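Q: what does this look like with adenosine-5'-diphosphate bound?
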Amino acid sequence: MKIIMLGAPGAGKGTQAKMIADKYGVPHISTGDIFRANIKNGTELGMEAKKYMDQGLLVPDELTVKILLDRVAKDDCEKGYVLDGFPRTIPQAEVLEEALANIGDKIDFAIDVDVPDENIVRRMSGRRACLSCGATYHIEHVPPKAEGICDRCGKELVLRDDDKAETVKNRLNVYHEQTQPLIDFYEKKGVLKSVDGTVDMQDVFVAIVSILGE
Ligand code: ADP
Ligand code: ADP
Ligand code: ZN
């Protein structure tokens, strides 16, 4: 089962992708998490990616595509995967499609988590992230058990640099210009499914399970 999560920054792609990964036993692959891990470890890739991420811009396709193709070639991806934050541009989607076609394969579902812009800025300012294990919380909707501490690994939670209101506005513009066209792209391929992302996260998941099957 190969799944793509679509949606604006903060729509809940990561939250749902983790639940899908747990239920269906496929890896959750987030290009954002891969970049953040590289930034944390001070790699060359991390330094390069950070220049773009801090401004709310996309990391160039050449860099992103290579990382993603390397990742999905790993053994744990044989049964499928859920991609969170990739593709984000039409050229990225085309490269992925071609790579899959070369092995006689394709994407099964592109799930668009739909949340209007008005809700997004509010959501992002409340998001707290664990840069160690990738877990995500929300100070009102999904609070950790102990304030500022990750439930899963005990490390400190942070407000991501790119979740500040100014940068979020840039990211929303970038989303509308470069990523939203993917909704049409996957609609034409016949694999697009949309869910209402404004409801409670458990209810969003129920809608997704009804699409993917029990
Ligand atoms: P969000 O969870 O808000 O959607 P992500 O963690 O997916 O954010 O991505 C954070 C940042 O990492 C993006 O704003 C972008 O700079 C970079 N990034 C992640 N995935 C991609 C991608 N597929 N193409 C280009 N840039 C990406
Ligand atoms: P994305 O990966 O699309 O950027 P996240 O999954 O990180 O989005 O969610 C963004 C923020 O909104 C996080 O703080 C998360 O805990 C919170 N969140 C996720 N889903 C919901 C929901 N259905 N209702 C309210 N808040 C949510
Ligand atoms: Zn953690």
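DSSP finds nine helices and eight strands in the chain. The beta strands are 2-6, 28-30, 81-84, 109-114, 127-130, 136-138, 157-158, 192-196.
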